[in-house]
User: Which sequence fits this backbone?
């Protein structure tokens, strides 16, 4: 099952990196803790397939170093990090960063080349333990069949956990669709996107979504959703797509695609992207009506917008919880993750759910039968009043 979040995540300058990196910080560590607690030897494999230099020139951690930091502070898991980069110059800088963490005792390795060239050895090394893949290319991504092969086969089962977070380029899809619509069938982008999508099916999807005004935004959205759905169905996973835009009125630059088999993964990712989104909003700061990069069409302070958004999300989650107990006598919240976050996935976080549940119990429409250590583990049912 693939869903798309209702919250478009915007980008100004490098703010798309703020969002992606916030997700890594907020998701990778709890992922390692969750799956590492029951993994053989507490081992967990995490891969950055397009790691670049690992660290920006100003010393800010990029995705590679964020994964290394997560490995260094993991307390309930032993993370084995593999960072891959194809460009020789970037790989050499990446290897230096990896070396710093190796000296701290982190199990990490840097590899040069294309990630699909290393997939077999990566999967072999991760046999019997959880595996998380982060794939963030510039342009065309990993060939569909190569990725599906990793997610299927021996790794198709729920355990050991296998999860993926990848960048599906909307810019690349629009460029390929433009060439296709113009009849430029020899354009190099067409076979490249065929490989990424695992066939030519995307061409019909894109052209059907094109519309009479030749706007390419719905094409990119339709192809991204169809890609996620196909990959999820082929591998027995749940898929989530998150659109990321450069400006409020612009088309998505890319869609983040998240794949998991676990309701816990769906839940923790919901919390991670909601909090990452607010971190991104706060980084942008307040905008004005005269600002060409205006995030809002009015002079709101960012915190006020976040507060209003959270209030709407709490109202929706409260109704969702009431609907759950109307259908079932009792249920653990994580087992109804889709219903809990219905309509507010990407906006509501754990705090939103906790507050909504408190309000629902206060008015007597829902009761907490068992209080979980985490809100997702709580069991709810109809009011016992």
Assistant:
């Amino acid at each position: 099952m693939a869903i798309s979040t209702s919250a478009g995540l915007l980008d100004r300058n490098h703010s798309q990196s703020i969002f992606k990196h916030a997700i890594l910080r907020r998701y990778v560590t709890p992922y390692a803790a969750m799956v590492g607690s029951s993994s053989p030897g507490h081992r967990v494999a995490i891969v950055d397939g397009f790691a670049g230099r690992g660290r920006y020139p100003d010393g800010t951690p990029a995705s590679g170093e964020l994964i290394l930091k997560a490995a260094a502070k993991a307390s309930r898991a032993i993370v084995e990090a593999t960072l891959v980069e194809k460009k020789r110059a970037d790989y050499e800088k990446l290897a230096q960063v990896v070396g710093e963490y190796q000296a701290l005792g982190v199990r990490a390795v840097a590899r040069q080349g294309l990630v699909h060239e290393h997939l077999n050895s990566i999967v072999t090394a991760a046999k019997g333990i959880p595996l998380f893949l982060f794939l963030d290319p510039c342009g065309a991504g990993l060939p569909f069949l190569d990725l599906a092969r990793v997610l299927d086969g021996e790794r198709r089962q729920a355990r050991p956990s296998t999860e993926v977070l990848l960048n599906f380029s909307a810019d690349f899809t629009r460029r390929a669709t433009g060439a296709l619509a113009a009849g430029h069938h020899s354009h190099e982008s067409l076979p490249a996107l065929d490989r990424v999508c695992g066939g030519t099916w995307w061409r019909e999807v894109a052209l059907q979504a094109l519309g009479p005004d030749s706007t390419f935004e719905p094409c990119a959205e339709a192809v991204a959703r169809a890609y996620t759905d196909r990959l999820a169905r082929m591998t027995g996973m749940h898929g989530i797509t998150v659109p990321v835009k450069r400006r409020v009125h612009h088309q998505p630059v890319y869609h983040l695609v998240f794949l998991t088999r676990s309701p816990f993964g769906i839940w923790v990712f919901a919390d991670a992207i909601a909090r990452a989104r607010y971190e991104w909003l706060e980084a942008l700061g307040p905008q004005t009506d005269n600002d060409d990069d205006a995030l809002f069409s009015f002079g709101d302070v960012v915190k006020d917008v976040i507060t209003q958004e959270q209030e709407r999300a709490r109202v929706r989650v409260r109704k969702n919880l009431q609907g759950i107990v109307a259908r079932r006598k009792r249920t653990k919240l994580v087992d109804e993750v889709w219903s809990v976050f219905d309509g507010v996935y990407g906006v509501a976080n754990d705090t939103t759910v906790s507050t909504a549940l408190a309000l629902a119990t206060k008015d007597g429409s829902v009761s907490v039968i068992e209080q979980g250590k985490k809100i997702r583990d709580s069991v709810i049912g109809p009011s016992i009043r």
User: Anything to note?
Assistant: The chain is about 45% helix and 15% strand. The longest strand covers residues 252-260.
